[in-house]
Amino acid sequence: MYPEEIVAPCREELTKNGFESLETADAVADVLNKKDETILMVVNSVCGCAARGARPGVLKSLDNEHKPTKLTTVFAGVDGDAVAKAREHFQPYPPSSPAIALFKNGELVHFIERYQIEGTPDHVLADHLKEVYNEFC
Predict the structure, then answer these.
(1) Catalytic residue among 49, 59, 99, 125
(2) What is the span of the domain harbouring residue 11?
(3) Hey, which end of the chain has fewer CB within 10 Å, N or C?
(4) Catalytic-residue membership of 10
């Protein structure tokens, strides 16, 4: 478990921009049981690739005509039960944080693992996500 003074700004970077923080397994299940939405779920982290790539890239990706109808996040190393529940829906992908998942009508349609985020400039990640949104949203 990370100290709250480290976690809070990382979480707020997303929540102040419209992301719902899912902090329990039930909250994750409730959101992912919705079948008529596109749901973006960011597995947040305190690591450098989340700070340099994942969070900024995801936020930049929202400047697009097509985007998910619901924005959510779970926090690895903090919201253990929520992350475990989310990862059940990420199969066949192994645990990864940070990570970015897009669900459409309750089905996982796109997943970005840590190795795809690490070292990728945020604008490249944003452009990739925009292409994904244009296809699925």
Answers:
(1) 49
(2) 4-136
(3) N
(4) no
